[in-house]
Amino acid sequence: MANQNNNTNYKNLVGPIAIDGPVASGKSTVGKIIAERLEWPFADTGLMYRAIGYIMEKESISINNNVKLYDHSLNAKITINDDLVTLNGEDITDVITSPTISKNASLVAESSQIRQLLTNQQRNMVTQARGKIVMVGRDITTVIVPDTLHKFYLDAPSEIRSLRRLSQQNRAPSAKDIKNMQSQIDERDARDLSRAASPLRISKDTQVIETAHLTLAQVVEEIMVKLIQRK
Ligand code: C5P
After folding, report:
1. Is residue 49 within 8 Å of 109, Cβ to Cβ?
2. Rounded Cα gap, residues 52 and 74, in angstroms
């Protein structure tokens, strides 16, 4: 099974592959591995919302100043190339992972105008890749490419997602770290689920994968198998 993608089964696979899920559900890690296996490009759309969240911070724009934020966003050139993110040529890869930018991104994501802007850019990315792209986010299965055959939703309880996110640090997390992380995650999830514009939803033909008791490799294999079944 491990090298199943080496056989001809995947040669004629028609994309795109869309993966949604709540904060820290493993979408990016899993999506990136699948993209590497298929030799397709990978796009983490959360990074684009984070780039706009960074504009808010850099230009000191309030989330209530929709007009100014939209104006800046309209003129922003955001590029995502695997892990490298640039905004108007500036490498912002590391700065956009901070808790402040995470929260800004989540606030920005409530704006229907900003969403429309990014939706257009993301659909262009799909077109440019001729559909052969793995894209992850919150509205890929419901808004960006709802008609694709390959739609997945990764899920796990927020306690588990918090621990996974903290395990990426170099030190053992304290009980306070865990509590803080879980409350940040719960707050962002609640905003994604309750907003009016493209809320996080599981559409009826999306395949849900509960990852709580699965390893990363098992999640990847499950998706690889399902891709063939739906070809
Ligand atoms: O995936 P990540 O946590 O980096 O995304 C940052 C924020 O961007 C999320 O909290 C979510 O509110 C928003 N987002 C979105 N739609 C997407 C991708 C991300 O609303 N397709």
Report:
1. yes
2. 10
